[in-house]
C-alpha cells in the first residue's frame, strides 16, 4: 500500500517538469489534473500561462488529456477556449478514468504519465494503473473541509518522501 502512495517524481509546479526527460523515458501521453495542479480550485478558466504550457507539451510531441474528479460544468468552462481531451467526474483513484484518458491519447501504461497534486487520487490512481506518477505541490490549499482533512494525511505521507525523483 505504501508504495502506491509514492510518486515517481515530486516537483514544486507543472512548470518545473522536464518535458525533455519525459520524452526520453518514452512518455507519449500526459494525464493532467486540473484543480490545484494547473490552477487554484476556484479559478474558472485556463490562464494564458497554462495554455502556453499545453502548447509546449505538444511541441515535444506529447498529447494531453485533462482528468478531473470535478463536475462536467467545471471542466467544460475551464476548457471552453481550448481544444483538449477531457474526462470529468473521473472518480480517481479508480482505474476507469485512466483507461478512458489512455484511449483518447492512444497510449498504454508504458508510455503514459499522470500529473496531479493529490496523493490519494492522482498518485494512488496512477500507481494502481502502473503509469508514471508526478506529484506537484498544490497551488492553493484553502479548500472544502474534506480536502483539508485529506491533506493532513498527505502531509504525513509526504514527510517520508523527498522532492525529486524516486
Ligand atoms: Mg487536484
TrEMBL record:
Task: Check the record and name the SUPFAM superfamilies matching this protein.
Answer: HAD-like (SSF56784)
Please provide, in alphabetical order, the Gene Ontology terms of the cellular component aspect for this entry.
cytoplasm
Question: Could you give a GO molecular-function term held by this entry?
Answer: phosphatidylglycerophosphatase activity
**Protein's recorded name:** YqeG family HAD IIIA-type phosphatase
